[in-house]
Amino acid sequence: MVKYCKNCGQKLVDEALFCPNCGEKVSGKGSLSSKKFLLLFLVIIVLAILAVFLTNTLIFNQTQVVQVDNVQFEIPADYVSQPLRTDVNVDDGVKSTSMGWSNDKYYLEIGVTRIPGTQIDSEQLASVIGRTPSKMFGYSGYYIEYENEGCAFVFGLEDEVCMVYVSDYDAFSDVKVIG
To answer: Which SS3 state, helix, strand or coil, does residue 112 take?
Structure first.
């Protein structure tokens, strides 16, 4: 296909970057056009943002799912299980299990007591023992603060009483109840 200069009409050879007659730049030759350059730049930016997001998600925000009795919790991956695990079976199928984890900042312990055939009402339980009902992890329950020893949140989940104990109140944000 024969090409002509847009400016002066001179016939052009296929490899020409500029018109030999008037010096006009031949479009589509040489470096990327500004639109292609802008598109390439935007693609690189989007890929860089995606790489940062994935790096943060995969490396810094890793979690682990832990199970205490029949209840699953999600905690950050940097928490290491403490070797002590308590399992107590009582008559009538009542079972209590407790497990602990720690990282560089906090210690947390989760205890679950299963009482088959009951439906735990955390708000009623809080009132009976003189606590103010509150909500955490999406469940109703009550909060306990121990003098110089951390705090806990106790709540009912079907036929189980769950207690999440943490060495510092801020560690509650590290725990998610899956169910």
So the answer is: strand
Cα separation, 157 vs 66, in Å, equals 16
Give the other-Cβ count within 10 Å of 75's Cβ: 20
pLDDT per residue over 106-117, tens digit each? 999 999 988 887
CA distances, 156 to each of 28, 80, 125, 136, 144 (Å): 70, 26, 9, 11, 15
pTM to 2 decimal places: 0.62
Q: How far is CA 129 from CA 53, 94, 103, 136, 160, in A?
A: 46, 21, 32, 18, 17
Q: Residues 96-132, buried b or exposed e (16+ Cβ, 10 A)?
A: bbbbbbbeeebbbbbbbbbbeeeebebbebbeeeebe
Q: Please answer whether residues 17 and 2 qualify as being in contact, where contact means their C-beta atoms are separated by less than 8 angstroms.
A: no
> For the chain, where are the alpha helices, taking DSSP H only?
34-55, 122-128
Distance CA 13, CA 28 (A): 14
Determine how many CB atoms are found less than 10 A away from the CB of residue 164: 25
pLDDT at 14: 82
